[in-house]
Amino acid sequence: MSNIREVSQLAGVSTATVSRALRNPELVSKESRRKVMEAVERLNYRPNMLARNFRSERSYSLVILTPSIASPFYSRVIRGVELAAQNRGYSVLLGDTRDSLRREDEYIELVETRLADGIIQFRPSESNSRIARRTNFPIVYACGCADTALPSVRIDNIEAARAVVNYFLSLGHRRIAVICGPPENPHSIDRLAGYRRALQDADIAEDPDLIVHADDYSMQSGVKAGTRIAELHDSPTALFCMNDEIAIGAIQSIKRAGISVPGDMSVAGFDNIDFARHYDPPLTTIDQPSDEIGQMACNMLIDQIEERGVSQNNVILDYDLIVRASTGPAP
Amino acid sequence: MSNIREVSQLAGVSTATVSRALRNPELVSKESRRKVMEAVERLNYRPNMLARNFRSERSYSLVILTPSIASPFYSRVIRGVELAAQNRGYSVLLGDTRDSLRREDEYIELVETRLADGIIQFRPSESNSRIARRTNFPIVYACGCADTALPSVRIDNIEAARAVVNYFLSLGHRRIAVICGPPENPHSIDRLAGYRRALQDADIAEDPDLIVHADDYSMQSGVKAGTRIAELHDSPTALFCMNDEIAIGAIQSIKRAGISVPGDMSVAGFDNIDFARHYDPPLTTIDQPSDEIGQMACNMLIDQIEERGVSQNNVILDYDLIVRASTGPAP
Questions:
Q1: Does residue A300 sit in the same domain as residue A271?
Q2: Touching B: A residues 91-130, CB under 8 Å
Q3: Confidence class for position A111, pLDDT limits 50, 70, 90
Q4: Which of A181, A150, A193, A169 is nearest to A270 (CA)?
Q5: Residue B35: domain span
Q6: Beta strand pairing status for A285-287 and A320-322?
Q7: Contact with chain A for residue B279, Cβ under 8 A
Q8: Are residues B61 and B122 in the same domain?
Q9: Which of A243, A277, A223, A225 is nearest to A68 (CA)?
Q10: Does residue A327 form part of some domain?
Q11: Residues B270 and B211 in one domain
């Protein structure tokens, strides 16, 4: 690659003039500017942005910490982050933590060593001590939870879960089961609270047999949890799954057990991933505004980094209940 | 954040000694080293890596150019890239091009301005003129095609497609349809060549009605193309789809038209995404070693960047035909 000295020689001006022509063209005569731009064009010169980063002590990049980039829901939020970042001149570094705190630490180190300017955290809890013991650590929680004190963008998970159960109740269902994520998962805690509130409001006593926890949010865990639901003596007529992957896995087990969906059992998911509408049957679910969550979280983070002042600390966006063929009237 | 001067004051040594203790500890006395490390620990000091990058003219980051990060197949390849990168001290910048050459150019600019050291390209063609007119541009094509001259890691798409069609033939199918990607897509060209070769070897004349092109590789396009297949007068008994999303969409249309899968029509996909085994029916497909493709492409790229010499330019990995319930004997 050509360097600034070659540009200055070809243009017949000093390197300082080249630098000014590129950064503050208004300070340079029209004629010098023309010569510099011609030389830049002919030599295909590109300024070394590492010098800018070194001088400004900024990397103009953000880290996304995600438990899994292979999650169809998170990958859509990431697209939103990435679009907003590119619009504001930032790059996005991928931090696929594979649910490991050690890997998460290695990415936080990028901010500490200035290789990234801030973090968008998808894991919905603040348990990381490296972040907790620091002040002014630029961070935004995307898809956060009700108890997040740090800046976050999310939907109201309690209300969204309640909306699913209320919808089941409106169809005449009374025995409504739920497959949660892991017990300590903050999304799982919020959504279970919503499930309980809806049942209480309808004066339905809680049946512990109808509350099952999946090992994680994967389809494979949905298959396992769905088998437990299918084997219950007193079968539920409706099942709320805390994400679409669990719902897809659960429906697979339920159908294999000879239970028809929605004839014998209605099933709903959460997130509205692309596969939801193409499953058999197409899945009733909660649509989260994934792209908007990503864009907003990114803009909030860049505002923090650029010290524009944080106007909103905790943004709650709207969700939609999408009704498809996996749910129907109680049998 | 604390700086190197504060560390040197607390340790009672010069800043040069602090710098040496951190970078070349063998050059520093044991006692000085101990003092420095204690001060680093107490002040929670982290070296400014932007200075390293500026001096070495390297960013220690790689760009992944992907048409869509939301693709379940590519996202698994990305996980592989990211794991290998982290192991070798590199970060991964996400370049979600949304199939736009303009956005792709903006990411290539990152390498030209030194903000990234090289590119892993997922789009399987070399049409980008900015890369083509440069020599020594560190790049590796992951999931490339047969005609790639630049370094690439891939499976043999022609042979894999041929294996699917040969499997259909072994089940007694003779009318075998195919849903391709867009006509100009290199994967589509390779896989169609494999389809044709298998039919030729079996002395089956090609029927143009049985070759359908989808608008892209999405489920939605699969739904549309599947409708065309379902409406054919002389119905095929087997259908090969060039990725799993197209297959899932096509099966949805085919089932809606009252055609049973695999009773009336066997359907196979390509890629073996996580959803394939959880679909109804579970999908017969070609398994690509996505994680291995990603890791190998990443290591080849870093070898180029670090000028270790490129041992292999074009790596071809093995695929597997995974037989599931979406395929069966010809009716």
A1: no
A2: 91-94, 96, 98, 103, 106, 109-110, 112-116
A3: confident
A4: A181
A5: 4-47
A6: antiparallel
A7: yes
A8: yes
A9: A243
A10: no
A11: yes
Residues B99 and B131 in one domain: yes
The Cα of A227 is separated from the nearest Cα of chain B by a number of Å equal to: 14
Residue B169's pLDDT is what? 98
Q: How far is A59 from chain B (nearest CA, A)?
A: 7
State how many domains chain B has. Answer: 3
CB nearest to A82's CB, from B46, B61, B94: B94
Is residue A86 within 8 angstroms of chain B, CB to CB? yes
Residues A164 and A281 reside in one and the same domain: yes
pLDDT single digits (tens) A241-257: 999 999 999 999 999 99
List C-alpha distances in Å: B154 to B77, B128, B161, B235, B314.
Answer: 11, 20, 14, 34, 8
Which residues 210-229 in chain A show a CB within 8 A of chain B?
219, 223
Report pTM. 0.87
Quickly state the pLDDT bin for A171 (edges 50, 70, 90): very high
Query: How many C-alpha atoms does A148 have within 13 Å on its Cβ side?
Result: 30
Quickly count: other Cβ atoms within 10 Å of residue A313's Cβ: 12
Residues B164 and B263 in one domain: yes
Which residues of chain A are within 8 Å of residue B112 when distances are taken between CB atoms? 1, 46
